[in-house]
């Protein structure tokens, strides 16, 4: 009987899968993203292999990375003496260790194709972690992610053809965000700090993460998490700190670094002197701080709601599971009782009509089985409709949006964006745009214009200005919607 019920359930699920609403949901329903996410991963794997095999490799920074790591592997621990063709080493110690590993794996950096295949692995893992965040938040339709991810020329170039360190840093960041979503605080802190140790831009998330710690953990445990992050930086940098601490700190965490105007994507329209001016940099820093002061109070309220609802989840989830277990047990008893009752009725009927039982015995048995099946199916369906279920994963939105927003503010106020910096926020753009009230057409238009700006080389006055317009439009749309939602929530309370 158990196997028959299982077959009925499978048959019911198969019928549901081949309905128009279900198939449509695979494309437009954020709750049905897992299937599309699997297809995206498979498509990306195939696409990236084709890129490696068909598109010529162009050298930019890989050789310099290998030269910097070679100096370290030869025993040089003074950061001021570690250099490559593009200049001095300007990344923290985590970068040195990871790219030293790549140095060994790729025959001193000479096996370019193997390095590209390693970066295919990096990108597929990064993409899996990004899609897991989108699956949890249930915010963005599957077709949006498929179009955005699969059609970005620049992102594939950054990861597979150029092998910059930015994607590696972002990979560790997304690992940490996934751990934070699972409430694994120490693992989240460890991987966040590892991400910072590869490239300093990950610190753009720090203001949001600090308040996330504070609201969820309190001051004492926040200090523990900050200590964990700090210790990782200290341990990784220790060999270099012992030899020349000033050179290490100045080289890997240089906040006053002046970027080359030749590579800028966002400020091509500025005169070189103005672009390199200290006052221009201070102005951008002031705007950055001002925007954080405006947006962080809203982010804090989101974090507070996340914390409260997570507490409710801890209280309610065991009760829901216990109740569903109880209902499942009751369901089995009800099925047995109904089937037995049905068989008894059939038997009574056959006794009253003894003269027919011999000739119609087989027919009555089949009828009894069919009737029993209908009863059990009806109970199963009714029970599934009544089952208790609360999808707590959607709470992730209250954490993810503030994190992505604070990073995006840093992008908007960046003193210069180089082409590889697109990886810092590319995968967050669909999420941010779907947190605005803009129409679908406007959202896709902004995504397309941003992609166009990043694909234009060298950048022009028009593309730089257009990129700022797109960024400001997203920032305005997100903040406006957040403000409206918080006002509505306060009225309800």
Automatic annotation (TrEMBL):
The chain crosses the membrane at residues 33-52, 89-105, 117-134, 140-156, 168-186, 192-214, 226-249, 278-300, 398-419, 431-450. Pfam families: ALG3 (PF05208). Its main location: endoplasmic reticulum. One of its GO terms (cellular component) is endoplasmic reticulum membrane. It is found in: Endoplasmic reticulum membrane. It comes from the Eukaryota. This is dolichyl-P-Man:Man5GlcNAc2-PP-dolichol alpha-1,3-mannosyltransferase. It comes from Vanessa tameamea. The gene is LOC113392649.
